[in-house]
Amino acid sequence: MRTLTKIHELSDVLTDQIAAGEVIERPASVVKELVENAIDAHSLEIDITLEEAGLQKIEVRDDGDGISTDEVLTAFKRHATSKITDRKDLFRVKSLGFRGEALPSIASVSNVTMVTSTGKTGAAVTIKGGELVTQKPAEARRGTTVTVADLFYNVPARLKYLKSPNTELSKIVDIVNRLAFGHPEISIALTHNGRELLRTAGRGDQLQVIGSVYGMAATGQMAPIKASDADFKISGYVSLPALTRASRSYISVLLNGRYVRNFAITKAVIAGYGSKLMVGRYPLAVINIEMDPLLVDVNVHPTKQEVRLSKEEALSHLVRTAVAAALGDRNLIPDGWDNL
Ligand code: ADP
Ligand code: MG
């Protein structure tokens, strides 16, 4: 059956809302995109402030490059990015973002204010439901603050689908932890309803970040791992068999600094323990993998957490042997056990 409506292009606001469905699933997605932008802007300090698990307010403040006043509105346009220019860049992406979708998507489903400055002039814009509300000059303090209020106010179905505030908050904490693991050189703080949940020192020490996230006692129970071959360089930390959890979600895999979900590598980490783990117990681990960006396709999914790897089997083998080596020459009673 053919309706009377003619074929026509959808409005920008509508296409942004459709894209938002893929990129911005929940408050944690907003936090992820904004913090990734702050990281890409070479920030040294990132402050994340939440109210009501991000449903009332998410604010991300950074001291990074900022956006020049004449480009602020462009940043909110669909597929507008400063991070890639041509096709060959797409296969060599080093930044966390590159699709130019986050800001327009967020702005289409919330009430966003951005205050930003490169240090010369400052600009403040407010966009609600994808429509510009105000644009004015602001203080020229270098950096960017993005405040997202009333998330999904115009997408009732999305609001309904969200889980309890506690669950949404734990998803935010989870993603912030993993971003912090990937960037020990940045001091990252997370505050919820006035209570500080995380603060990393920003001194470039990944073990220190692991301590801020899992507690300082855990750091005495982590073994460093190191391995490389022609294609991959692996580093990071794995917990000694005495320190385990009931879920595998404490294994973080960072590919060129980007947190990814990858079943094969996670499985390889666990396999590296051989028979040292009890049934149903999993280690804590932070695995950094450095590789030629040409060997990984991050453009598989809008959130970029799923990636396609060439040489996945060789990499898994390297990870498994690196983990086994890190644990192998240690006594099963770990160092630092008595000062726990
Ligand atoms: P992407 O990150 O994929 O480029 P976004 O929609 O997230 O797309 O951001 C669009 C552009 O806005 C970025 O390419 C960047 O130039 C600019 N931008 C966004 N957030 C920041 C920030 N915190 N600091 C500096 N520039 C930013
Ligand atoms: Mg981005």
From TrEMBL:
GO function terms (MF aspect) = ATP binding; ATP hydrolysis activity; ATP-dependent DNA damage sensor activity; mismatched DNA binding
Q: Name one GO biological process term.
A: mismatch repair
Keywords on this record? DNA damage, DNA repair
Q: What is a single cellular component term in the Gene Ontology annotation?
A: mismatch repair complex
Domain DNA mismatch repair protein S5 residue range list: 210-328
**Coiled coil (UniProt feature):** none
| Task of the protein | This protein is involved in the repair of mismatches in DNA. It is required for dam-dependent methyl-directed DNA mismatch repair. May act as a 'molecular matchmaker', a protein that promotes the formation of a stable complex between two or more DNA-binding proteins in an ATP-dependent manner without itself being part of a final effector complex.
Tell me its family: Belongs to the DNA mismatch repair MutL/HexB family.
The name this protein carries in UniProt is: DNA mismatch repair protein MutL
Recorded source organism is Secundilactobacillus kimchicus JCM 15530
